[in-house]
Every structure is written in structure tokens, then in C-alpha cells.
């Protein structure tokens, strides 16, 4: 017994009266504290080193590094600093990019084992390029002295980024001939292409760097190399209208080859109204056949007639006439236009077949415009992505002049052309929502219906919107190499809000007596609505269409649309619910549509009386469709307790009760605070024993999964949240 006590006393004395377990715990805490302090110190050092390199303070940087252990210095020099915009840099890469010659020289001299090939993420011309090394950064920024320094110290002259871009390509992009010459002289391979098989010659041709193009060709660049899209350097130079570069490329043997859309360089130039380039190609000895010259002349004329930036009706007629005259230049071998089916969007226009027919419409601009659109579609074909822009421009001109029927026909044609070749139509869909809203504002629905059914056209656009959303979803599930998943996701969000605008516009039509609606149109509408509800459209924050329809801060486009689409909107809610929208649905914060409604009331643009009536009707709709008024969000709040409407003393309000059918009681509200009373009253009215039991389970955090029937678990979840 004494021995045991002695041993116990010894333990206590050895630990100075501290419990051994506490002592271990304290040691761990001290160790963790020291570790955290070391991390903070290292991060502070890293930041000081990075910003000294970034700002060119070579002496300051040297002093900081000299005080450090060699291994720690190298570790910090090779560590990447993350900028707020997502760019990453090592001190060497940021110094090379910013042209800090003294910093680069000091680092290479004093730290010869620094990682010259460290790969960073750098913003270049508005795009984040991954895998950028110091040499690429210096070459792309045009710092020749730093390029020389890095190569002298062994930097890989052909180091490629994640998209296979080389320092030489970066220099070609910027047109730095001095850097290009030095890189090539020191072993840069000028025929290395990037991930899209786009060569240095192609990018220099596209950017218009004539001296660089000439240098590359003299040193063996492949003039007829093709990118993945089958375009050559001549395509890129033609597209941008670089006459001198096109001439140089032709001198080095460039030929007319077609890209993946069947467009040759001369067709590219004609479509972009590059007048001098088209004339160069047409006059270059034996470059084009007679048929190719005719197509080029007619296409450039047709493009001048409907180009937003280069509209010139005089030149349009001039070149279309030159093309027609060339068709008839040999009376024994007249090259006649092929017959094509008239297109309704172009007023069923049939192309002029003779010089006389074309001369007859010289001063009829509308006829020239339709002639031009028809020519473009014949030459470019339906699969060309460039075909839609002039159609949209011509439609916009019609809209500005109040010819909404013509505008709609042209825009719908352009939309379908784009959808058929899987080009984004997000802007096209929004454009329709804007013009439909404008028509409603101006009362143009009546005049529109004398030509086409206004309601029918809105349904057609809604159908296209649904098709686009479904297509994007399929691409998100199985993206191809060309698909930008983030971009597609964002587009689908925008298309979801556009679908909401269209639904709201449709509700305006349903209430308007001037719009002709037949039973077939209504059936089509309800089928589309059911399809939309089955798609279960949501934004990234989890809001469904029903959430958006009652949300006072739902984003609304400010070009005409915001005057027609205002939220909360009773009619949109009514239509969604009628066609199967779920009322007990949550966003990512577990807010039901009712939570969303009451939390955004103070931002709504309605007059107070109108707001009261709107909220009354929406709440009634929710009630009729089985909403649980006691459902809680992630903060454990029911809708009646949302801070946006909650009042401290609702008893002071006068609340006359109005009896309505089905024993549904509503209060005629006069202040926002009364809305809380309305919702709380319904909450109390609809609370069942089942609801109370669910609340009890949630409040006491009782484990219920696997204990109660599966069909009850979702019901309990309505009444529980993690923050209860």
C-alpha cells in the first residue's frame, strides 16, 4: 500500500502536480501552435518573396532570401502563389511576365537550381493558359532580354503548355519578330502546333503580323498545314482581311482548300466583306475557276447587303451585278443559277436569273436584301455557322421599323438554322422574349395576328427553348472534346430564366382578348408545360421555376422584358401549378417557394395594394395545391417567421376576416406585417398531429431514417433542418 502511494506521489512530483494526460495534451497543443506559427511565417515569407519579384525589387528579394536556409529558399522560390483571379505564379514566372530583368538575373545567378520549367496558370489575352513556364511568359509578353537570359540558363525553348502552345507561338501571337527570330535561332520548332493543330503561321496570319509571317515562311513553315477545323493560314488571313499576308502566302504556294464547313479562303473573305482580298484572289493567275469567282462576287455583294458593320447597298448591287455579268460573259457557256426552293422567311423570294432581272430591282432595297439572303444561303449552305448573323440583323431592322411579323419570321429561321447545327441559341431565345414583350407594350399583337397567330409563334419559341435545354443537358452528361462544360451550364441557367419570361408572356396573351387562341394551341401549351415541369429546371442555387415566379428579385432582362415580366406573378404561378409543378420543393437553402415569396416582398416593384392582392392569391394557390406551411428551411424557420416580414407586435393590426369558398380564410392585408399573420394563420390551420410529431422528432434530433416507413421520411424532412 505504501509502495503504491509512493509510486503515485513520485508520478505527481515528476509532473510538478500536473496530470500526465493533461501534460501530453498541453504538449500537443504547444506543438500544434508552433506548427501553425511556422506555417504563418512561411506564408508570410512566400508572400514577401512573391511581391518583391512581381514588383521588381531585386535587392529586397535578395536580402530576404539570403537570410533563409538554402533548402527553404528553394522551396519558397518554387512554390506557387495564387492570385485573386485564379492565376498562379512562381516568383520567376511573374518576374519574367512583368519584365523584371534584374529579378530574373538575380534568381538565375544566385539560385541556379531554381525550377525553370515550373508550370503556372496565366491570364493571356483574357484567357487562362495552364502550364505556362517562365520562357513562355517572357516570350508572350515580348521581353527579349529575359528570353535571352532564360535560354542562356537552359530553359526549354519548346516547352509546351497544357494546350501544346510553345513560347514561339506566344511570341507570334504578339507579333514580336525580335523574340521570334531569337527563339528560332536557338532551336524553336516553328511547325509545332497547339492542341487544335493551329500552327504559329496560322496565329501570326490571323493577327496580321506580316513580318512574322514572312520570317516563318522563309524558315520553313508549312504554308498549307491544316488545323483540326481544316482551316489553313490563308483562311485566317482572309477572314481578317489581311491583304499583304494573303499575297505573301500565295507567293509561297498557298492554295484554296475548304474547311470543315466547306468554305474556301475566298468564300471566307467574301462572307466577311473583305473587298481587297476577294479582288486579290479573283485576279491571281489561275487561282480560281470561273464558277468560284462568280460565287465569290455574288457572296460579297450579298454580304454587303446585310452586314451590320459593313452595310453598303451600293457595293452589294455592284458585286451581285459583276457576278451575274460573269455568268453571261460567254454566250455559249452561260452559267445559270441553280433553282432552290423558296424560303418563307425571305418572302419566298426567287433569285434573279438574268442581268435584266437584277437591274430591275437596283433601287428596290427590300428586294435586294431578300436577293442577298437567298444568295448567301445557296452559296454557304444550311450547315455554315456564319449564315445566321445577317438574317438576325435584317430581322432587327424590321423590328426597329415596327415590322414585327417579318422580324419574327427571319429570327425563327435563324434560330432553327443554328439549332440544326448545334450552335448556341441562348441569345436568340432571349431576343424573342424581348421582342414579344415590346409587342405587348405597343399593342402590336392585334396587327401581328392578321398575318400569323401571335400565340402560336410564342409557343414555337418556347418549344425551341425546351429543345435547347434538353440538348445542353445531354451535352453536360456526355461532353465532347470541344464542349466547355462551365459555359454550357451557365447557358442552361440563362435559358431557364428565358423560359420563365416566355411563360409569363404567354400568361399575358391568355388574358388578352385581342390574341387569337384556339384549342389546338392550348393543348400544345399544356403539353409543353408538362414537359417543362418534368424537366425539373433549376438554377445553381436550387431555385425552380416556381421559386423564380414568386421571387421579387428574379433577374429580368432590362430591354423591354422588365416592363412585362414582373415577379411575383400570379398567372405564371397558376399555370405552373396547373400543369404539375411541385409546390413542396426546396432550393439549396431548403427554402420552399413560400419562403422565397415572403423573403423578397420588400424588393417588389408593385404598389402596396397590388402587392397585397398578389400575395393573397399566390398563398391561396399554394394552399389549394397542398403546400406545407410549417415546412422549415436550413435555418429552421417556417415561412411565417422569415425576418423580411416578421413583426414584433402583429396584434396591433386590424385584421378583418373574410370568408371564402371551401372555408378558406384570408385576411385583407394592408401592411407587410399582416402577411405574416396570414401565413401563420394558415400554418396553424393546417398543422396536423403528423406535423407536430415530425417537429418533435426534429427538435429532439431523434434518429428516424430506417426506423419509420420510407414514405414518411420525406414528410419528417419537411419539418426538420440541420440548424434547428
TrEMBL record:
Cited InterPro entries: Ankyrin_rpt, Ankyrin_rpt-contain_sf, TPR-like_helical_dom_sf
SMART domains noted in UniProt: ANK
Species annotation: Culicoides sonorensis
Gene name as annotated: CSON006896
Ranges of the ANK repeats in the UniProt entry: 87-119, 130-162, 163-195, 196-228, 229-254
Pfam family, one: Ank_3
Lineage, opening ranks: Eukaryota, Metazoa, Ecdysozoa, Arthropoda, Hexapoda
GO CC list: cytoplasm
Protein name: Protein fem-1 homolog B
Gene3D superfamilies (alphabetical): Ankyrin repeat-containing domain, Tetratricopeptide repeat domain
Coiled coil regions, renumbered to chain: none
